[in-house]
Amino acid sequence: MMNDQPEIIVISLLRAVERREAIKAQFSHLGVDFHFFDAVDGKKGHELFLRFDARKAKRIGEIPLTAGHLGCYASHYLVWQRCSESNKPLIVLEDDAQIFEESFSRFLSVCPALPETIECVRLFDSRSRNTERLRVFDQNGVTVCKFLRGHKSATGYFLRPSAARKFLQYADTWAEPVDIEMDQFWDNGVECFGVEQACVTNNPEFESAIDTGFNTKDLRKGLMRLRWRWYLIKGKIRREIHNFKFRKSLNLGQKKS
């Protein structure tokens, strides 16, 4: 367990003045300290972009990552490095986060009590169609669950150094957006834990900073579409096996207690 509160980091582009002012106002109202982390601007490029593996993306039927996707991935990657090097937990938010004050404050209050085995907690509602979950922690009105599918977003999450190192190792090469690769718990070793009551959501005043500009369904045709479907099937099989083992370990732990 932790001895103190985690530092709060907000990933934000230097030029995103309106977003910065909006998130500053929220934390000012909460009376909670935070720090901006200057995001990587996809339009300007970065040495980390070399980690994008175009051949792997093609092999699995993924559409090449845009400059916005690469900038987003690089920004989270650098925050993971910071967490790993400091050896201290963080709460990581993107600058379009809208904070639910009551649930966010409750989560902050229980952070020191979170078991070490809970390495990363998504602080927003899952965007997956399957939100099946297993309760693993309950204190002071905060319920943390193991989700059987990923959340499909990186708007906000609690992160331990142990999870940061696993994400860094998994991100040796990039083929998919950062939130999707974070969700691949059966491969990256970071269980997908989330809160039952969301602490943050996306601020509706701001559009996504990731400029896609295309429809994935229109682009995935023929052989590319078949590769993608096969990739998803293989991932589903591995995910189900992993979740079966997790359920079994959870049941064994409950019986022992």
Automatic annotation (TrEMBL):
Domain Glycosyl transferase family span(s) in chain numbering: 7-180
InterPro entries linked to this entry: Glyco_trans_25 (IPR002654)
Protein name: Epitope biosynthesis protein
